[in-house]
Amino acid sequence: MTDLYKTILSPSEGSYKEKGSKFLAFAYGVRDEETVKQHLDELRRQYHDARHHCYAWRLGPEKDRYRVNDDGEPSSSAGKPIYGQIVSRDLTDILVVVVRYFGGTLLGVGGLINAYRSAASDALDRNSIIECRVFDRVILEFEYEHMNGVMKIIKDFQLEMEDQKFDLVCSLTLKIWKRQTKQVLASFSKITECNITVIEE
């Protein structure tokens, strides 16, 4: 079970120069493909005069969604080396883009691989890697008379409340760290007439 993953703290930039070509690298924390597209569109607008905008991204705690793009460079000479830097640091929820300004001298496939890898590495080295938890969301419905018991469990496990409604029948939306979910649900299930709905993130 994956309940921890690593990503970057904030956007960062890096660069690499080789035989007149400039490689500008940009790293972003992203949660979905729509955000990836927004960053790519913005960089293409900002650096519209660049020859190539090559990139790699990986999404999700399972690290099973990813894409690489050479944007016109020889096959596997740009996107894969960028992606290799993501993999070597075991990162996810990340986009790395390397923008190339051509300097007039061909670098060859080996030169390109080194350049794109080095630029991506520089951007990531200038960042901070953070460890994040994977959460389940739980909707809890119970009668008001059980409030004290419910609140005690929330306090014991230091759970985060995202939404709450207190009435004759109360409703709470809670965030639970995945590795605690089974234990927390077992505690709540001991409270009579407590309805529990688990929504995976």
How large is the count of helical segments?
5
CATH class of the largest domain: Alpha Beta
Strands of the widest sheet, in order across it, are 2-3-6-4-5
Whole-number count of domains: 2
Encode the helix/strand succession as letters.
Answer: EEEHEEHEHEEHEEHE
Count of beta strands: 11
Low-confidence stretches: none
What number is the mean pLDDT?
93
Rounded to an integer in angstroms, the radius of gyration calculated over CA atoms is 23 Å
CATH architecture type of the largest domain = 2-Layer Sandwich
CATH topology-level name of the largest domain: Ribosomal Protein S5, domain 2
Helix content: 25-40%
Shape: elongated
Secondary structural class? alpha+beta
Write up this protein.
- The chain is an alpha+beta fold.
- It has two domains: 4-132, Impact, N-terminal domain (Ribosomal Protein S5, domain 2, 2-Layer Sandwich); 135-200, Alpha-Beta Plaits.
- 31% of the residues lie in helices and 38% in strands.
- It is built from five helices and eleven strands, in the order E-E-E-H-E-E-H-E-H-E-E-H-E-E-H-E.
- It has helices at 33-46, 79-88, 108-125, 147-157, 181-189, and strands at residues 4-8, 12-18, 21-29, 52-59, 65-69, 94-101, 129-133, 135-143, 160-165, 169-177, 195-200.
- The chain has a five-stranded antiparallel beta sheet, sandwiched between helices. Strands 9-10-8-11 form a four-stranded antiparallel beta sheet, with helices on one face. Strands 1-7 form a two-stranded antiparallel ribbon.
- Strand 2 (12-18) and strand 3 (21-29) form a beta hairpin.
- Helix 2 runs parallel beside helix 3 (108-125).
- The longest helix has 18 residues, at 108-125.
- The protein is elongated, with a radius of gyration of 23 Å.
- The protein starts with a strand and ends with a strand.
- The mean pLDDT is 93.
